[in-house]
Specification:
single chain, mainly alpha, 5 helices
């Protein structure tokens, strides 16, 4: 079955903080509160209590920045997930793109090695 999201992932290891930020972003995307993966991650960095995080703010920002870079590399330098889709011949409605984003985050959580 062909995926509507990138499956070739760059070398990266998820920390517990990365996992919580990704889960937070997925939850926000599914609820319609964030449109983009990185904005969902950023919300977790700026509102750690919403993402069940108690990290030092500087460490949390660092983890968020590393996760942003990983996401950017995973979508081959494209700015947005849907740009990656279009450049790969995948045409989706806005609602379907949101579902694809949530599925992709699940894929990342299941297929990216942990530290």
């Amino acid at each position: 079955m062909e995926k509507n999201y990138p499956t070739a992932l760059p070398d990266f290891r998820l920390t517990k903080t990365h996992v919580k930020l990704l889960k937070h972003a997925r939850k926000r995307i599914k609820a319609g509160l964030s449109e983009y993966v990185c904005s969902g991650i950023q919300h977790g960095v700026e509102h750690p209590e919403d993402a069940d995080l108690n990290n030092h703010p500087v460490r949390l920002e660092h983890a968020g920045a590393n996760l942003h870079r990983f996401i950017r590399r995973a979508i081959n330098g494209n700015t947005y997930f849907d740009t990656w889709q279009r450049r790969n011949g995948i045409s989706r409605s806005r609602q379907q793109v949101q579902k694809d984003r949530a599925k992709w985050i699940k894929y990342l959580l299941e297929n990216t090695p942990r530290q």
